[in-house]
Amino acid sequence: MGDRPRVFVARRIPDDGLQPVSQACEAEIWPDELPPPRDVLLRSIAGCDGVLTLLTDRVDAEFFDAAGPQLKVVSNYAVGFDNIDIPEATRRKVPVGNTPGVLTDTTADLAFALLMAAGRRVAEGDRYVRQGRWKTWGPMLLLGHDVHGSTLGIVGFGRIGQALARRASGFGMQILYHDVNRLPPEVEEPLSATFVPLDELLARSDFVSLHVNLTPDTEHLMNAERLRQMKPTGVLVNTSRGPVVDHDALFEALRDGVIFAAGLDVTEPEPLPPSHPLLTLDSCLVVPHIASASRATRGKMAEMAAANLLAGVRGERLPTPVNPEVYERG
Ligand code: DGY
């Protein structure tokens, strides 16, 4: 018992991950729906060999100090890792794991669902019916914009951006993309995707979908000026991270008809308070950060997060490390 590694798991995750962790480790699992309060998290990780975190847990110098120098791994139950100070982890030689790949298609499915729902006013139509406002078939009722045959601009053309392009090609959409670098023809050609500067992408696209990591460079990437570059019929979709969009600017753009609609899976802050101005607008569709929320995908994410945690506490290389440089420095 005393030989088993000690780990803290910051929320109940699917059994696909909890079971192997509980079998191999002395595991404390935070049981609540809400994340552990900061002071409880810091107390709970003291002396642990490994910690399984969620995107709601901030992992920084204070976290590493509280855990102690024996900490061997932080395994994040997410592909994104903007909640973790990676340079700090690397400085302390703590490998950090994430869950890339398994949520690509599930996230792209939701991005496409938001794109269609915002463009065709699906959530607004549902509210209209529930509110008893549906009186007859109307020639002008809830008119939206066609998805088929339109132009999709994908900002950030990594795994998820490319998976969205595959879906869009089935709808006969023209695909534009922007990324820090142009991708090789082996990536572009099968997707019929054209690299363009961001300004041009915003001006030409009917739908703009964001798939960038949150970094100081991408924070408020979609600000008032960039929103103005979009078409007045344009639809913005965000399944990346909330702070990539300036929400005050988005509110004004939607209110003033600068763009047509937005579909958001991620917001700033999260959760978005019910009193937030964006929620007064029918043209803004918001869901609660559920892009990877299919049973199968959350199970696979749990398996991967457990595999990273267990490899880390055993002193083995993580299957999917975010900071592989911890191994290179010896
Ligand atoms: C992630 O993994 O980064 C998503 O935001 C949640 O699945």
Word description of this protein:
The chain is α/β, with parallel strands linked by helices. The protein has 2 domains: 6-102 and 295-328, Rossmann fold (3-Layer(aba) Sandwich), CATH 3.40.50.720; 104-286, Rossmann fold. The protein contains 13 helices and 12 strands. The protein has helices at 15-24, 38-45, 61-67, 86-91, 104-119, 122-130, 159-169, 185-191, 198-204, 224-229, 247-255, 295-313, 325-328, and strands at residues 6-9, 26-29, 50-53, 73-76, 96-97, 151-155, 174-178, 193-195, 207-210, 235-238, 261-264, 284-286. The protein has a 7-stranded parallel β-sheet with strand order 8-7-6-9-10-11-12, sandwiched between helices. A 5-stranded parallel β-sheet has the order 2-1-3-4-5. Strand 3, helix 3 and strand 4 form a beta-alpha-beta unit. It starts with 5 loop residues before the first strand and ends with a helix. 42% of the residues are buried. The site of (2R)-2,3-dihydroxypropanoic acid has 6 residues, from loops.
From the structure above, extract its key features.
13 helices, seven-stranded parallel sheet, about 15% strand, binds (2R)-2,3-dihydroxypropanoic acid, globular, about 325 residues, alpha/beta, Rossmann fold, single chain, about 35% helix
